[in-house]
Design goal:
CATH architecture of chain B: Orthogonal Bundle
Largest sheet of chain B: 2 strands, antiparallel
Low-confidence stretches of chain A: none
Largest sheet of chain A: none
Mean pLDDT of chain B: 85
Largest interface: A-B, 56 and 63 residues
Structural class of chain B: mainly alpha
Distance between the termini of chain B: 36 Å
Helix content of chain B: over 70%
Order of helices and strands of chain A: HHHHHH
Strand order of the largest sheet of chain B: 1-2
Distance between the termini of chain A: 46 Å
CATH superfamily of chain B: MetI-like
Number of strands of chain B: 2
Low-confidence stretches of chain B: none
Number of strands of chain A: 0
Number of domains of chain A: 2
Radius of gyration of chain A: 25 Å
Number of helices of chain A: 6
Mean pLDDT of chain A: 79
Number of domains of chain B: 1
Strand content of chain B: under 5%
Strand content of chain A: under 5%
Oligomer: heterodimer
Chain lengths: 154, 270
């Protein structure tokens, strides 16, 4: 009895591990290629787990020629603002929709459901014009506000 | 009162653009000049073979993605629910692709799909087969996208069965098959239905990976261009924002129709 349980757990683990390796493969591939000196000309072939020409060249080039710090700063600002704002706004609205009883409540709920089906690309052109008009174009706020409006529905 | 900020954001950044898009669909527009043309764009896209092709690609990819993803997701979820050791590490591994940006993943996969130096063809040659052309030929490009999407599988919803249920069933002497059919299937059914509905909506809106693999036209030879890619191409590449807007309205209607059918057939019977 014990042996059969062990066997079953083991085979389940084996199946999970095989699929898991396939799922991890792109990440391993990314990591090992990033350390390969020749990878900025051509991919190493055959693939190598630890590149023969191991070097930090790609990392140095990246840090020197792009303002990576600024990109991370942008991502950080946008993410934290969106999360903070959504937490505040949607907890307020969620409370009202769940607890309150007022006219139009059902309508708002339906509206929210309907917009989940709208592909973002549908609103992106008008959004672009809107951002130009309200002078938010080319600012971080232009990234934050609409995303807040969309994330809110999830 | 409490709804005001959320409603404000919604009105300004979603409903207003939506209405504007609807207006744009009755115009000929390069954004700088916009002229009213009535239903002209609707007549035009009705006979547009490029759009028809994009619609076919979208439906094809959505259908086969769901068909391949659901069984795999169920298999992994069942195994994860039943395995007793190392569950957390496996969960992290399977959740990793989902939290990766699609754009980043698509770049890595472009390398992996490379016909000459890619890892897939290296493996195929190792096994003695001839390498495939993957994303470089229309005959295999759709397959490549489906394989890529398989990697972005969403499992979180299928992780809700408490292990105690299985233990109780084991004590009662249930075998694996009984556990699967009496516990896993019924308990996962609502989640699966939900995944089918949201998966269809998401699949119909596929864009990022298409853009990364084959630009807005969905190369090779438009074989992977989806409707959203077509909308993008009409607007930002060809400056025909009116056509893009019209196709967007059409896509919205199609998604709504499919969702209504899905909800009717899948939710009602449960």
């Amino acid at each position: 009895m014990r042996k059969s349980i062990l066997l079953k757990q083991g085979s389940m683990g084996a199946v999970l591990a095989v699929i898991g390796v396939i799922f991890l493969l792109p990440f391993i591939y990314m990591l090992s290629t990033s350390f390969s000196r020749q990878a900025n000309i051509a991919l190493p072939y055959p693939p190598q787990l630890i590149p023969e020409d191991f070097s930090l060249f790609n990392y140095i080039v990246m840090l020197k020629s792009f303002s990576v710090g600024l990109y991370y700063f942008n991502s950080g600002i946008v993410t934290s603002s969106v999360v903070g704002g959504v937490l505040l706004i949607s907890s307020l609205a969620g409370y009202a929709i769940a607890k309150g009883s007022f006219r139009g409540k059902y309508f708002i709920f339906l509206l929210i459901l309907a917009t989940m089906m709208v592909p973002f690309q549908i609103i992106v052109v008008p959004l672009y014009i809107l951002m130009l008009k309200i002078k938010l174009y080319d600012t971080r706020l232009a990234l934050i506000l609409p995303v807040m409006a969309i994330v809110y529905f999830l | 009162m409490f709804v005001a900020p959320a409603l404000g954001l919604f009105l300004l950044f979603i409903l207003y653009p939506l209405v504007w898009n609807f207006y744009l669909s009755f115009t000929k527009s390069s954004l700088i000049r916009t002229t009213w043309v009535g239903l002209f764009q609707y007549v035009r896209i009705a006979t547009d073979r490029t759009l028809l092709n994009a619609l076919y690609n979208t439906l094809y990819l959505t259908f086969f993605n769901l068909l391949t993803q659901l069984p795999l997701a169920l298999l992994i979820a069942t195994l994860l629910n039943e395995i007793k050791y190392t569950r957390t590490s496996f969960r992290i591994i399977y959740f990793l692709p989902y939290v990766t940006s699609i754009v980043v993943a698509a770049i890595i996969w472009t390398y992996m799909f490379d016909p000459d130096e890619g890892i897939f063809n290296w493996f195929l040659r190792l096994l003695g087969f001839r390498g495939l052309l993957w994303l470089s030929h229309p005959s295999t490009s759709k397959l490549s996208v489906i394989i890529f999407n398989l990697f972005l599988i969403y499992l979180a919803g299928l992780q809700t069965i408490p292990p105690q249920l299985y233990e109780a069933a084991e004590i009662d002497g249930a075998n694996s098959l009984q556990k699967f059919s009496k516990i896993t299937i019924p308990l996962l059914k609502p989640t699966t239905v939900f995944l089918v509905i949201t998966g269809t909506i998401g699949g119909m809106q596929t864009f990022q990976q298409i853009y990364m693999f084959g630009t807005a036209v969905g190369n090779p030879g438009r074989s992977i261009q989806t409707v959203v890619a077509y909308i993008y191409e009409s607007g930002w590449v060809l400056q025909h924002f009116g056509i893009g807007a019209t196709a967007a309205v059409l896509l919205f209607l199609i998604i709504m129709a499919i969702t209504v059918v899905n909800v009717k057939f899948l939710v009602r019977e449960n």
